[in-house]
Amino acid sequence: MRLGAAKDADHELKFMIGPEGRAVGVEAGLDDGKALSLPLVRDVSDLVPGLAGPGIRRRTAAGRRPRSKGRAILSATSRRALLAVGLATTVVATVLTITATAHAATLFGDDFNDGNADGWSKSGGSWSVVTDGSPVYRQTGTGSDAKAQAGSSWGDQAVQARVKPLAFTSGANRFVGVLGRAQTMTSYYYLTLNGSQILLGRRASGGYTTLASASAPVGVGTWQTLRLEAFGPALRGYLNGQLAVSATDSTFASGRVGLTAVFSSASFDDVVVTNVPGPGPTIPPTTTTTTTSRPPTTTTPPPTTTPPPTTTGPPPPPPPPGTADGFASVNAWGQNGTSGGAGGAAVTVDTAAEFLSAIAQGGPLVIRVSGMISLPGPMHDVTSDKTIVGLGSNSGVTGGGLNIGLPLDDDITAPPANAVRNIIIRNLVLTQCPDDCINVQMFSHHIWIDHNDLSEQNDGALDVKRGSNWVTISWNRFHDSDKNMLLGHDDSNGAQDIGRLKVTYHHNFFDGSNQRNPRVRFGEPVHIYNNYFLHIGGYGVASQMNAGVLVENNYFDDVEKPTRNDVGGDPGRIVARDNINVNTEDPIVTNGSVQEARSYYSYTLDPAASIPALVSAGAGVGKI
Q1: Catalytic-labelled residue, pool 79, 162, 368, 516
Q2: Which residues of the chain have pLDDT under 50?
Q3: Which of 133, 194, 285, 471 could bond to 175 as cystine, CB 3.0-4.6 Å?
Q4: Short-list 587, 593, 528, 530, CA closest to 560
């Protein structure tokens, strides 16, 4: 048996190669200096004799996990036992899935890429499948009450679609949107846009009743994502992933789904119907409670905190739905919030050549990625003022990663005028990256990374380092990942990092990502709130080199060392509030004081108890 190695300053993996030239095991270096040798197993019984059986499926290093209805996960005690005998899996894992337990299901979907609208019943208007970057379902007439309906009669349902208004005529009840629990062409619930408002309502035998409304100035010619949920009598309407309106009504218990353009024209795409509640925070906020397996403890004497910023008044209110929040929304460094490619042209790409050309262009640009694109490795630079967004739920890149930042230069210790800035990355699958999946470096700022799926990288899934600042990382799913995220790459890099590395992490799903979720050096405040940490074998959050980390309203389930400040280098500071920590022997460690994130921006906390359902349903791709 021979060893093949992949190594950089922070990571080392040694793959054990068998006589047939195939990897048969892996030796991984952990943050605490220990090494772990692991077999790559072909059967569940190789790991735990007697565990394999009917109904159990597996995923190995060579394949992607099929859509699961449930998962069998080893307990913390069992996992430690397996580690002791060298049989646990951390870097290249066999993940078990069990089909017996009911879970989220997709009831219906249509992206119209087959060029037709078979299965849709129409009433009024002029409906056809046309090309708008990719195939879409368009209603062009503005002189009738146009509707199209599809599917079966479902009870609990969430119908989501991308909607582009094209024209509104004057008058009452002129709008475009989605329908739920449709009984007939004139009886249903609706979630619609009329150019100035989002409307949640009921139509019964032709008569319209508005149940809830909110301001939503939406121009024609721009794509919006609407999601109408009906669960029991509770109705909720989301705009671009954020809860906008809600109401209670019992008129219709079940029905079909649909699209509508009432005396208006619009295009529709990526229709998906599921049986689970969707993404976005709930409103209004509710009070929170704390549950921990053991009281938080203080480890080392608290070092001195960095003085809080000088402010002239309270921070502005949270931004409207569908826009960057957290640190990416702050007006700083000559950039007021993060708008990406807004104001520029939009292009749709489906080849590596098109994608690489688009991300290298100067000026604002919206880049729509259609399907999975195989990139040459390892990393590819993204220029300023870009929005990169995946279409549907299976678009992204594989084989290469995205680099946001200037070339490395230790002599630059202040933000340069040409620092990369104002980038949005949303709804992308990034997998099998030979280096990082996303790397942010060299004072890059105003970066929003939202609703992506990151996995199977050779280095970090999403690293932020070397003076980068004003970053928000939200609603992403991380899985099949070992050393997941660095914030600050080296103990000796204080000249670039101190006073910077301000990052917000919220509503992310750390789904078995082994360690560094994130590992923080120097940054303050680093705001980690409303995240779901599940089955973490290494550790959750680490704070080192006098970093200041605020950990609020997160849910830790079966996490070894939910927080720590003893990974290496000088200890950092951790303030923890209203988290839930279960199925572990390890406490949430705290130390010292930290600047408040509210000194910079406003935000609303979801109760920690709601996080498992909220984040598992809302994080990742296909949710915006």
Answers
A1: 516
A2: 1-24, 37-104, 279-312
A3: 194
A4: 587
Task: For residues 241 and 531, give the distance between their C-alpha atoms in angstroms, rounded to a whole number.
Answer: 16
Closest to 262 (Cα-Cα) out of 168, 334, 343: 168
Q: Which alpha helices (H) appear in 243-379, and where do they start and end?
A: 352-360
Cα dist from 240 to 50, 53, 167, 218, 371, whole Å = 46, 42, 20, 12, 21
Q: Collapsing DSSP states into helix, strand and coil, what is residue 328? A: helix
Q: What is the pLDDT of residue 313?
A: 59
Write down the pLDDT at residue 83: 39
| Residue 22 CB burial class (10 angstroms; 0-12, 13-18, ≥19) | exposed
- What is this structure's pTM? 0.56
Instruction: Please state which CATH number belongs to domain 106-274.
Output: 2.60.120.560
3-state secondary structure of 358: helix
Distance CA 138, CA 401 (A): 35
Domain ranges of the chain: 2-98, 106-274, 342-410+419-618
Distance CA 454, CA 306 (A): 33
Please give the Cα distance from 311 to 330 (Å, whole number): 13
Same fold, 106-274 and 342-410+419-618: no
Concatenated DSSP letters of 469-516: EEEEEES-EEES-SB--EES--TT-HHHHTT---EEEES-EEES--B-
Q: Helix or strand or coil: residue 419?
A: coil
Amino acid at 594: V
Residue 25: HSE in the Cβ half-sphere, 13 Å Cα cutoff: 16
Integer Rg of the chain from CA: 25
Name the nearest CA neighbour of 578 among 516, 507, 529, 525.
529
Q: Distance (Å, rounded) from C-alpha 324 to C-alpha 338?
A: 6
User: Are 12 and 29 in contact, with CB atoms under 8 Å apart?
Assistant: yes
Q: What is the pLDDT of residue 42?
A: 34
Which pLDDT does position 278 carry in this prediction? 55
Please indicate whether residue 22 is annotated as part of the active site.
no
Closest by CA position to 300, among listed 540, 544, 521: 544
Q: State which H helix or E strand residue 614 sits in.
A: helix 611-618
Place of tokens 């799926």: 453
Encoded tokens for 87:
């049989």
Q: Per the structure block, which two tokens stand in for 488?
A: 């600050």
Amino acid at 325: D
Q: What are phi and psi for residue 531, nearest 5 degrees?
A: -100, 155
Beta strand pairing status for 207-215 and 197-204? antiparallel
Architecture of the domain delimited by 342-410+419-618? 3 Solenoid (2.160)
d(CA 427, CA 357): 20
Cβ-proximal residues to 427 (8 Å cutoff; 6+ apart), any chain: 389, 390, 391, 393, 395, 450, 451, 452, 621, 622, 623, 624
Tokens describing residue 538: 């290494």
